[in-house]
Amino acid sequence: MQYQIQQVLKGQGVNFQATITIKNKEVLQLQVTYIPNVLEENVIGFYAIAQDITRLFKEADDNMYRQKLHHINSNRSEIVQTLMKMLEMRDFITEGHADRLQDIVELMAKHLNLPEYSQSDLRLLAQFHDIGKVGISDNILFKPGPLTEKEYKEMQRHSEIGQRIALASSELASMADWILKHHEWWNGQGYPLGLKEEEIPLECRILAIADAYDAMTSDRPYRQAMSHQEAIKEIKRCARSAV
User: Fold this and answer.
1) Which is nearest to 70 in space by CA: 121, 134, 139?
2) What average pLDDT is seen over the chain?
3) In what order do the strands lie in the sheet with 2-9?
């Protein structure tokens, strides 16, 4: 690969061409051709440039996968498309839930002054956090009454199933850990790891609050939706306990 770089040396712009040998995204060699009569001491720091380029490759690689998912018309892997369709077809009770969650987590992230890439990652987490439910029986997912202890344990498995699905997809692997931990509670009584307080990733804590708010402000077969004010009051009451 060849790059045209302009470096300022002792107050003068010096144009040079850097030929970089790369294998597995690691810079193996950096060969520089520069204009004559430039002192060798003025060309120090090229290795640092190579390190910066390696870092940029990694960031660009990570961002490439983010952007593939962030755009609605991006080409998601076939397995992710299929699983999401299955989830949409089965989870008819919470129709629109993931879309609302994406908007809520983005607003929260902006309020916290999180960078744009964090806002985008949170939107993806909101969309895919329950993808593990495709591995849970319909008899449990749509049971009209309370779950038995055995059924509840089975339902809890969706976090671990979701993590395995995410790890199997290069497009979702970066958020596999968040998918695993998105049901952890601030008081340590969540699942599957029993994490507490700041052991829980910030992204999971944001999602938990957004999820609770959307659940309370949405109609359910067994109750009417709360108002915005009522939901906020309830979230404050439960602060430092469940979420």
Assistant:
1) 121
2) 75
3) 2-9, 12-23, 26-34
User: Same domain, yes or no, for 103 and 35?
Assistant: no
Of 169, 173, 202, the residue nearest 186 (C-alpha):
202
Specify the pTM: 0.65
Say if residue 33 is in the same domain as residue 152.
Answer: no
- Exposed (0-12), middle (13-18) or buried (19+): which is 116, by Cβ within 10 Å? exposed
Q: pLDDT of 18-45, one tens digit each?
A: 454 555 544 445 454 444 544 444 444 4
The β-bridge partners of 168 are: none
Q: What is the CA radius of gyration of the chain?
A: 24
Query: Are 196 and 114 in a shared domain?
Result: yes
Note whether 149 and 49 are same-domain residues: no
Question: Which helix (H) or strand (E) segment is 30 a member of?
Answer: strand 26-34
Nearest alpha-carbon partner for 1 in 25, 45, 65, 36: 25
Give pLDDT tens digits for 184-230: 999 999 999 999 999 999 999 999 999 999 989 987 766 788 999 99
Residue 140 included in any domain: yes
